[in-house]
Amino acid sequence: xxxxxxxxxxxxxxxxxxxxxxxxxxxxxxxxxxxxxxxxxxxxxxxxxxxxxxxxxxxxxxxxxxxxxxxxxxxxxxxxxxxxxxxxxxxxxxxxxxxxxxxxxxxxxxxxxxxxxxxxxxxxxxxxxxxxxxxxxxxxxxxxxxxxxxxxxxxxxxxxxxxxxxxxxxxxxxxxxxxxxxxxxxxxxxxxxxxxxxxxxxxxxxxxxxxxxxxxxxxxxxxxxxxxxxxxxxxxxxxxxxxxxxxxxxxxxxxxxxxxxxxxxxxxxxxxxxxxxxxxxxxxxxxxxxxxxxxxxxxxxxxxxxxxxxxxxxxxxxxxxxxxxxxxxxxxxxxxxxxxxxxxxxxxxxxxxxxxxxxxxxxxxxxxxxxxxxxxxxxxxxxxxxxxxxxxxxxxxxxxxxxxxxxxxxxxxxxxxxxxxxxxxxxxxxxxxxxxxxxxxxxxxxxxxxxxxxxxxxxxxxxxxxxxxxxxxxxxxxxxxxxxxxxxxxxxxxxxxxxxxxxxxxxxxxxxxxxxxxxxxxxxxxxxxxxxxxxxxxxxxxxxxxxxxxxxxxxxxxxxxxxxxxxxxxxxxxxxxxxxxxxxxxxxxxxxxxxxxxxxxxxxxxxxxxxxxxxxxxxxxxxxxxxxxxxxxxxxxxxxxxxxxxxxxxxxxxxxxxxxxxxxxxxxxxxxxxxxxxxxxxxxxxxxxxxxxxxxxxxxxxxxxxxxxxxxxxxxxxxxxxxxxxxxxxxxxxxxxxxxx
Length: 741
Prior knowledge:
Elements: H1 21-28, H2 36-46, H3 48-68, E1 73-81, E2 87-89, E3 92-93, H4 101-115, H5 118-128, H6 134-139, H7 154-171, E4 172-176, E5 182-189, H8 192-250, E6 254-257, E7 268-271, H9 272-309, H10 313-335, H11 341-365, H12 367-403, H13 405-436, E8 442-446, H14 459-484, H15 491-498, E9 502-507, H16 514-519, H17 524-537, E10 547-552, H18 559-572, E11 577-581, H19 589-593, H20 601-605, E12 616-617, E13 624-626, H21 635-639, H22 643-652, E14 657-661, H23 670-675, E15 680-686, H24 692-704, E16 709-717, H25 725-733
Parallel strand pairs: 9-16, 10-14, 10-15, 11-13, 11-14, 15-16
Antiparallel strand pairs: 1-5, 1-8, 2-3, 4-5, 6-7, 12-13
Helix pairs in contact: 1-15, 3-14, 5-7, 5-8, 8-13, 9-11, 9-12, 10-11, 17-18, 17-25
């Protein structure tokens, strides 16, 4: 901290000049910027009793709550929820769930929400019959129903069960064990037995509900398949009736045939006409084969007969005759047409010779040729008959095929419905089997045991919570009080609020008569005012102003004591100084001097020019002073007259310094009137006294009146409650220290 004697001379601050707060702090030489943590510490110290009281009240409230709170017992059951796939049986599989982080998380979150579901609480309430359980009703502040009400209607029982389920939901906590498939089910009630019973029932009912959901899913599938089977069966029967009616109208008759020798091979529906055509084709093929065989046998028999007849002379003559006729016929054909009469005659002769040769051969071959010919003719006749029947049957089949197009459509519809029905029936059987052999993916790991002691309230936890609440509440109250309290608390704040140099800080005293401390040369009060007087010596280029006044925002801030002390300090260093009490409404100088309020300032302002006759002297230090005199009815009018200037001028002829004790500024017009008549104004501010807005308003009035503000003096300052305490206590109390200390 820089000493005041090492600073450059301080200049007066005229009303028109605006002084920056920072420059004011530097020129004052008393205040320095305070670290923010110390500012908070100072605020905490100022409101320490509020903070301590708030914390103690919260701690007491926490202790009382702990003693009076109902004892709660918590029982915990642990279950395991396994991740499974949706699979039914063998070749009947559902949709397999994807494996991945998001899907895994969704699965477990679903299970946790199912554990917290209202339906789960209602299942537990119904299974334990808690709506009628006296232990439950007693634990939750109820009572067992009277005997006349033990038989409740279904609506009443449902309403009671829902009420119990609501309470159970708030008493149950679902806590997944991190990094595992385990889940803790914790139940907290005032009854330890009830907590364990509800926790175990919660786990058991969750397993039962899980199984029921699995079975219900199969039931849904069965009901769906039953509906589809009924619909498909009806469609199939209707399609069969339509097909049979159409076949009857069109005369279409079919039979089931198998194309394979395997008895298990599926049969094929064929019409009678198609079956007949197949049979006729088979018979025609056989008749053709038989005819070819008969024809071959006939050719062989004829050849054999010709060979035998070839050696006969008559046959040889006939053949020679035939050759000659054929030669002649050939010659005629060269010239004439076949219809030429001689040519026709030759042709008839040749045919007769052929018959003659045949007769000769038949006579020579005997019965073998006749038998072969008869067989051949029979085979040929059978083949021709069958071929005729096949042609007719083929025509009938083409017509039937044309009429069987719609029949085929109806047949395919029947087959499709039959296959769909068979498939649905097979699925229905499989779902029925799967619904009875389903497995569960939830298992109880640890059953809940009867808790040995209450889980809440816990004294240490409640006290710690109360401490935190107390600290938060105390901090809030401190902030609110600090914001509400706008008084000046330290020298730095005094400079910041007033925008004036700090002339000095006057420590507070326990002595009711502060003037006694001022008269004591070794007191801290006397030393402080000596520092103020030293600061005033550098406030102007001429030193301490010839005329100055001390004022404040409101009364009781130490302005009168400061006026008297400044004049006494000047008097002690050999300067002639006088104190004039100008506070005509509430005079104080006569009390400080210990005399009666006789003739004084009001008399001079009223026209008494003998000012020196009004001067008195302090018995202790012989300090000259003038009392206020009798209280006038028009103090403002007296102070606004030119008589004040005459008073100052008259006294200045006899004294080097005239110090005026002026009235407070707030609410009165006296001080601004006086401020314009003196060379300088010393503004007194009581620590933790006037509000900052009142101080700024008062200073604004003085500046508007053209006052020359020399600086601010912080009075009644308690160094123990501020950051500056050590410095002032050392400076002002150093003379009081005992030797060797």
